[in-house]
Amino acid sequence: MLRSKRTTDIGKFAKLCKPTGQPVSKKLKVAFVQPIIPKYRSDFLRRFSEFTKLDILSLYGKLRSKKYKKICNYDKIHGFPHKALWAPLVVPRIQGQIYHVYFFPTLLWHLIKFRPQVVITEGEYMMLNNLLVFMYARIFGAKVVWWSLGKMVTRQKTIVNYLFDWLIRWEIFNCHFIVGKNTQACRYYHEKYGIPVDRTLVAPNSIDDINEKDIEQSKDDIAALRKRLGFGPVVLYVGAMTEAKRLEDLIRAMEDVWNKCPSAKLVLVGDGEVKSDLEKMVSELKWEDKVIFIGKVLEGVSKYFLLAEVFVLPGLGGLAIPHAMIHGVPVIAGIADGTEKDLIIDGVTGYLLKSDNNKELAEKIIAIITKPELRKEMSVNCKDFIETQWNIRLQVERMHMAAAKAREVRTTLGRCVKREAAN
Hints:
The protein is of the alpha/beta class and 423 residues long. Helix content is 44%, strand content 15%. Helix 2 (39-52) crosses helix 15 (392-408).
């Protein structure tokens, strides 16, 4: 039932490096270079360290922004070696798009001090830091793994792209392996740069497994929440509140939902630069009793998923999709970061929106919350998909295999592409 072209595509980029379930080498030293470490990344690195037993170090920016609330580190990072590096916070807006510029002046020194054989860097985000990574790799013969979402289809090209596309291309060709956070990412590098399939691998961008103890402890909270919200169906959003998320469209689409299901509630969990504007809009429309703002929640967010009939991601994002599905919540999503194409099968695990039309969004919400049997079937399918095809265990195992593969290869991706072109 869950078979689809999307699951076949995942296999295309994963089958060449099937996880063995066993550590490859305890002698391998691996450095992760990342902008920040949010909770989900902390969970992944802890799991990676526990599973592989490798000597790892995570190097990341000591960053925090009051305006851009997504730029902050988890305050309970634990379970793996890590080092926060000083970095200036530069967030320019160019031709209507926001760019996060990350540069860690002491990165090269910390790499030399740790002396990893493999460096895993978060791709395009780390364009400037990558120059230091490649300098280290050239001097010490280390291998570099490019870990990325590839091209974000919702982002328009600006002068920044035209100025730095050559640098990104140079960096990709000087790597040794590519890990895509979803199938779309691997396909992008294969089609745009000619990277061979056997030099790419999908390591599904996921969250940690649900802690059953936490779910048990959430039951009392769920009962209290249900009493507060009433007994109507709950439409849920969890994540950052930014323009790219299209939350205003979601709120306006709910008007059609309420015409069919007056008892429905929209619950918005998260924080961000547009939260106050959304609250003002809801107040002006006098929908305060129907649209509930919860605020940012890191610990105990499971209770909101367990309360929901459907999760909606109308705009940019991706990680929230497996977060919902792991709880058995069907997902409705528009064009996000590519993860939606891997996880959402129309009518099976949720619905993919075909347009930005609020009418279509409302229709899909109504289709799920007014049909309990459909919702129940989708819930089972969501859990099954996550358990078998998209979870943090696969993410850890495939990243492990990517590090080992990168260490084994002798040529960069650029030389590999030239060799294939010559043949």
